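Loading example: each entry is read as four labelled lines plus one structure line.
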Amino acid sequence: MPGRVTVRLFATARVAVGASQLRIRVDPDGVTAKSLIDSLGKHYPKLAPALRTSRFVLNERYLTRLTNKVRPGDEFAVHPPYGGG
Amino acid sequence: MPGRVTVRLFATARVAVGASQLRIRVDPDGVTAKSLIDSLGKHYPKLAPALRTSRFVLNERYLTRLTNKVRPGDEFAVHPPYGGG
Amino acid sequence: MSLRLTRRPLSVPAAMEALEGPGLGGVVLFAGRVRPDATRRGRVVALEYEAHRTLARVVLAELERKVHRRYGAERVVLWHRLGSVPVGQVSVVVGVATVHRTEAFAAARFLIDQLKARAPIWKTERVQPARRRQSRPPSPGGRGAG
Amino acid sequence: MSLRLTRRPLSVPAAMEALEGPGLGGVVLFAGRVRPDATRRGRVVALEYEAHRTLARVVLAELERKVHRRYGAERVVLWHRLGSVPVGQVSVVVGVATVHRTEAFAAARFLIDQLKARAPIWKTERVQPARRRQSRPPSPGGRGAG
């Protein structure tokens, strides 16, 4: 779906939103990861606490800077603290 | 068999003597462990090297002193260095 | 090297087989089993595991390479269950085979610690709510268990 | 607690069963397998184990009590094979189950180290003598393996 970012939500983030995936419309030029995260927190207030403790993954790589651009077609994942084992 | 000590031999000690058990005649009053060990080394020269690196067990307990008495009916075991696992 | 993220039960014998190799004298295996922990909401009856699968495989593969380099681990098993795992069942198996045991112990410990810290896998507790105390009706004339 | 000195093969699944117990979330298992080491006399094909059985049981039982006290090990497996164990087969299994993994790793490591140092068990290598190089008679007309 052009024009949109796929946001994948896991664990507490998934429960907070009630969905494991969101499709978020962004500018054709993309937005910074920070502004995407802020807007997620605004639209889903229950998600805000999880966002504060999560790591983020952009197209299967850990996000290194919040200024990185997220563009239409990208996949952006929210990873709350891990709990395997 | 009254009048005798059972000597049990393991591993290199067993191979040196060619038997896993010996019956050694001792004084009715017993002998010290040291004198028993010395006489084993004398009768079985191939056993002497093993005796120098072995621990000894008297009636299922590790020998604490070479002056301990070994008496007729006792069991005396020669334990070369262990190699389990 | 063997990586698995699976909804099916983990088999320890199969892990031992995967760890066979000529001259590998030391095998250390860690198995994590689901504990019936007491929580505020009740007693745990199962753990529900989810993963970011693609990324988890990348992370686990990196761990395998690392223990191979660092500890000479010739065979490695890194298996994790996904979905619902009932109490008492094995949720994770980490196994290492090396020539000598010191490296096998160190590598297995490293793997499970790193897996827990770094693999994108999560658990949710499923609990059996503590039952409300209810007065049982008096037993109708029986003396023992029905 | 499970101690075994046996001439029969050791089963890792059976060890896992012996290590089951309510709430025991961490299981660490060490298995030692016979390696085909090269020696001066030839390549090892089997290890022949012998033990001073009565005393070995006493020593192993002491080790079990010690890891229970020191590491809270609730289930312990200490199994050792006797007699001839061919290359590749398991000669020793040490297993520990505890509530958490740190203690299980420490206890298993302690047990195998202590078993090797303190249990009256010995091994003798059975080797396959290195064959003398002998000229093979030319194969009678065949081209491949017979």
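Chain C is about 30% helix and 35% strand.
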